[in-house]
């Protein structure tokens, strides 16, 4: 694994336990806990004026961080109380942190939470393994302003799922790296502002945790830059299958492919060719039979699905797969394979939204990462599940979470643009998972720059700049490592 990818990893709670175990043999947990609690106190002090703070402490190391934070806030002369759900295990680092806090202790009750101006939730963190009891939730629900140590104590750090109904927090202070549960909804909303503190975790301990989920950012992948010796075929040819009834979707995908830097974009439209010829003059429209078009070996990458009926998919997708092409299947192709995902075997990338995913593999449930990873393994292709946070899995188990996005992307045809962008990156020679990840990021970047209430055509004008920015950021990331 490249070192710089560790920068973007999102370790799961189980991987954090491995990391902590490795750290306990090097620096010791007590030193890390001290820095973690200090970071919580600092984050609170830099955001809030001095006020009455109640720290809710659980029995594990999350609680330990809470005692340390309480001690540092008290040292800064803030009025602080601690309410312990249960005492920490004797002999452990949390027990030592509890011992060092010499301030006020109060009962773990809703009344005490209500009286505080600010409640720091250090009940459960990475160790959360079931829904907290009402005794815990009733206290958390009474708090006004909430700050989480690591995670809100009812949010699953792996999936972002809420194991109980709870309030939204103002701030979460996590350590080393954010966890998937900070990025995935609903945890993404519940956690409020996210601060990730460097607590001096040795990088080899993080490496020992073998993280396999990443935040999608340039540097996790790099997009090919323009080269002086480039010609249109070296930049890559994108071919699309065009249908008779819904040419708009195919044209949007073709426009996305062109705007993100494809050297040449062609639509294979058979007898529907005339409808496409009225469109953008930079597009090449083919009316020859697909078999004849496939004799051109330069046409390696095909996008099949946007704007196609099931019959049109049936007539094209199996031919493309049999010809050994890199096929990105989207939209109509995913409907065609609903209930029979094996029909997609041999394609390289699929880009379902949640409805298409459910039609192929069943509803993903609370653990989207696992569901998308399982689907990628099952079909031996890259699966990109679109959403407010997009999940991109490779058959070898790697997963990226793309939160570089905006609700402005939620406009009809936006998914067609995305598939066109990914096709361009595949045609530029990027590996399949990296191309899908980069495509999601460029799409998000274009959406973020497309102004207020954009329509789908507005994204295209920002894709070139998005690609340039991704190239620059990936180069920066490589320099920093
Ligand atoms: N990852 C890191 O680098 C570091 C982590 N630290 C802290 O350590 C925390 C993890 O500590 P622990 O592994 O001790 O786990 P926690 O403190 O999160 O949980 C403690 C124990 O509570 C029990 N528990 C879980 N869910 C429960 C529920 N719903 N009801 C009742 N009991 C429940 C479990 O048996 C669990 O082992 C992190 O969240 C973080 O705050 C820091 O102290 C230092 C460094
Ligand atoms: N709330 C949101 N926040 C960020 N991105 C979103 C949101 N809603 C949708 N998107 C993105 O917009 C695109 C919509 O694609 P899709 O559902 O296929 O729409 P269509 O079929 O109309 O093209 C996806 O890339 C998705 O990730
Ligand atoms: K917590």
TrEMBL record:
Reactions performed catalytically: (6S)-NADHX + ADP = AMP + phosphate + NADH + H(+); (6R)-NADHX = (6S)-NADHX; (6R)-NADPHX = (6S)-NADPHX; (6S)-NADPHX + ADP = AMP + phosphate + NADPH + H(+)
Superkingdom assignment: Bacteria
EC number(s) stated in the UniProt entry for this protein: 4.2.1.136, 5.1.99.6
Domain YjeF N-terminal stretches: 11-207
Known cofactor(s): Mg(2+); K(+)
Limits of the YjeF C-terminal domain: 215-481
Annotated residues for binding of K(+): 62, 121, 153
Keywords: ATP-binding, Isomerase, Lyase, Metal-binding, Multifunctional enzyme, NAD, NADP, Nucleotide-binding, Potassium
Binding site for (6S)-NADPHX: 61-65, 150, 249, 307, 353, 416
PROSITE patterns: YJEF_C_2, YJEF_C_3, YJEF_N
Subunit architecture: Homotetramer.
NCBIfam families the record matches: yjeF_cterm, yjeF_nterm
Protein's job: Bifunctional enzyme that catalyzes the epimerization of the S- and R-forms of NAD(P)HX and the dehydration of the S-form of NAD(P)HX at the expense of ADP, which is converted to AMP. This allows the repair of both epimers of NAD(P)HX, a damaged form of NAD(P)H that is a result of enzymatic or heat-dependent hydration. Catalyzes the dehydration of the S-form of NAD(P)HX at the expense of ADP, which is converted to AMP. Together with NAD(P)HX epimerase, which catalyzes the epimerization of the S- and R-forms, the enzyme allows the repair of both epimers of NAD(P)HX, a damaged form of NAD(P)H that is a result of enzymatic or heat-dependent hydration.
Protein family membership: In the N-terminal section; belongs to the NnrE/AIBP family.
Protein name: Bifunctional NAD(P)H-hydrate repair enzyme
Organism annotation: Asaia lannensis NBRC 102526
Gene that encodes the chain: nnrE
């Amino acid at each position: 694994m490249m070192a710089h990818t560790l920068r973007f990893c999102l370790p799961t709670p189980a991987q954090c336990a491995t990391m902590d175990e490795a750290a306990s043999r090097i620096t010791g947990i007590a030193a890390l806990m001290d820095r973690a609690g200090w970071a919580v106190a600092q984050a609170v002090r830099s955001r809030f004026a001095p006020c009455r703070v109640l720290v809710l402490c659980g029995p594990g190391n999350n609680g330990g961080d809470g005692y340390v934070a309480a001690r540092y806030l008290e040292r800064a002369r803030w009025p602080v109380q601690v309410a312990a759900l249960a005492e920490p295990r004797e002999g452990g680092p949390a027990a030592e942190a509890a011992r060092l806090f010499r301030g006020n202790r109060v009962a773990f009750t809703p009344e005490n939470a209500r009286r505080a101006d600010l409640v720091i939730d250090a009940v459960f963190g990475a160790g959360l393994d079931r829904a907290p009891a009402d005794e815990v939730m009733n206290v958390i629900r009474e708090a006004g302003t909430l700050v989480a140590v690591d995670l809100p104590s009812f949010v699953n750090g792996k999936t972002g799922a809420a194991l109980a109904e709870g309030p939204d927090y103002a701030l979460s202070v996590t350590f080393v790296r954010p966890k998937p549960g900070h990025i995935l909804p609903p945890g993404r909303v519940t956690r409020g502002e996210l601060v990730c503190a460097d607590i001096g975790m040795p990088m080899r301990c993080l490496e020992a945790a073998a993280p396999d989920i990443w935040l999608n950012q340039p540097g996790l992948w790099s997009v090919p830059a323009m080269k002086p010796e480039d010609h249109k075929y070296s930049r890559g040819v994108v071919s699309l299958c065009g249908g008779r009834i819904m040419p708009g979707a195919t044209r949007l995908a073709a426009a996305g492919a062109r705007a993100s830097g494809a050297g040449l974009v062609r639509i294979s439209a058979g007898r529907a060719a005339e409808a496409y010829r009225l469109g953008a003059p930079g597009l090449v429209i083919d009316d020859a039979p697909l078999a004849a078009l496939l004799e051109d070996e330069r046409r390696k990458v095909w996008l099949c699905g946007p704007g196609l009926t099931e019959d049109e998919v049936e007539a094209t997708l199996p031919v493309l797969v049999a010809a050994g092409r890199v096929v990105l299947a989207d939209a109509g192709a995913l409907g065609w394979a609903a209930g029979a995902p094996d029909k997609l075997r041999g394609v390289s990338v699929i880009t379902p939204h949640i409805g298409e995913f459910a039609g192929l593999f069943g509803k993903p449930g609370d653990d989207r990462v696992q569901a998308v990873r399982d689907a990628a393994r099952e079909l031996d292709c890259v699966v990109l599940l679109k959403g407010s946070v997009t999940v991109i899995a490779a058959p070898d188990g790697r997963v990226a979470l793309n939160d570089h996005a905006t609700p402005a992307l939620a406009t009809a045809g936006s998914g067609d643009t995305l598939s066109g962008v990914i096709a361009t990156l595949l045609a530029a020679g990027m590996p399949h998972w990296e191309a899908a990840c980069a495509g999601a990021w460029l799409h998000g970047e274009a959406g973020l720059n497309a102004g207020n209430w954009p329509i789908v055509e507005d994204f295209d004008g920002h894709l070139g700049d998005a690609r340039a920015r991704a190239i620059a950021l990936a180069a920066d990331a490589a320099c920093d490592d």
